[in-house]
Amino acid sequence: MTEPLLKVEGLKKYFPITGGLLGRTKGQVKAVDDISFYVNEGETLGIVGESGCGKSTTGRMLMRLLDPTEGKVTFDGKELTSLSASEMRKARRDIQMVFQDPYASLNPRHSIEKILMEPLNVHNIGDPKERKRKVHEFLEIVGLSSYHAKRYPHQFSGGQRQRIGIARALMTNPKLIIADEPVSALDVSIQAQVLNLMQDLQRDLKLTYIFIAHDLGVVRHISDRVGVMYLGNMAELADTESLYEKPLHPYTQALLSAVPVPDPEFVREEVVIKGDVPSPANPPSGCRFHTRCPFKMDICSQEIPRLAEVEPGHSVACHLYEESRPQ
Ligand SMILES: Nc1ncnc2c1ncn2[C@@H]1O[C@H](COP(=O)(O)OP(=O)(O)OP(=O)(O)O)[C@@H](O)[C@H]1O
Ligand SMILES: [Mg+2]
């Protein structure tokens, strides 16, 4: 088997909580707390979970827009976490991000041409004439026209702006795109168009995606595998089909109960969770989900369940499946 394109091991991000007159550290927000996963070349890994569970923090650590508190990220054979700032700048050519709100991430005072040219300038790709040609080429690739180059972000619709955000991410010919809720701000009808575009681009340009979303409905179609995060942990990670047909973690089951099922013959057992997500500054002991879990056992508040494969390609971090694990 070939090595995965991206390997994440024991990744953590704790943000200090400071306060008082002297700005002393009063505690820590455990935004991401020991997660591990891999992404194979050419596939899409979906990452889902409720607001605040650490999805964006994870994405930003992979690009080292944020430095991890602990853990290792290996991309294309290089350990990113040990690269110097200038080596990391070079590596960023191969990893790009697409954001939820393209309007906030596109400078309103710059023309589209200038916005799309910037990554080429930063990475010193081509001469001015080639850069211009590339901008026009990529505008067409994402379904816009070269005459759009002279316009400004406010002259576009939300869906068009996201196409520009995608074009900007593609300018350096990256291998991996981390898309953080790329369609969450768009109308449902536009969401499908942007998702289709992303799939076409993946096929044509041989891209690898990490696709972050808060609901399981959006990622199903585009993902080969899906990881479900809860309060900084990975609760379950499986092939898309197996995750949707046979969710194992009570949290995944609850999330899926909220997604409408297209097949009326198919009756899914409904799992309803109570209460709100606890604070990541003071997460529950043991399994972080135990305070809301309808199947809670004694062990759940005492021991952290580890993410382990219980069926081929299907891993879950839950004490209910302790017996099915390889010892
Ligand atoms: N710079 C920061 N300083 C302190 N706390 C932070 C910082 N960035 C994120 N957090 C906290 O870390 C936790 C995880 O945040 P993150 O943005 O990764 O969540 P998310 O899963 O992307 O949520 P959403 O679905 O709302 O985008 C949250 O509790 C958040 O408040
Ligand atoms: Mg986020």
From TrEMBL:
Organism whose genome encodes this protein: Planococcus maitriensis
CDD domains to which the protein is assigned, alphabetical: ABC_NikE_OppD_transporters
GO molecular function, one term: ATP hydrolysis activity
Domain of life where this protein originates: Bacteria
PROSITE patterns, sorted: ABC_TRANSPORTER_1, ABC_TRANSPORTER_2
Any matching Pfam family: ABC_tran
All copies of domain ABC transporter, residue ranges: 6-256
Protein name: Dipeptide/oligopeptide/nickel ABC transporter ATP-binding protein
Keywords: ATP-binding, Nucleotide-binding, Transport
GO biological process, one term: transmembrane transport
Stored SUPFAM superfamilies: P-loop containing nucleoside triphosphate hydrolases
Family indicated by similarity: Belongs to the ABC transporter superfamily.
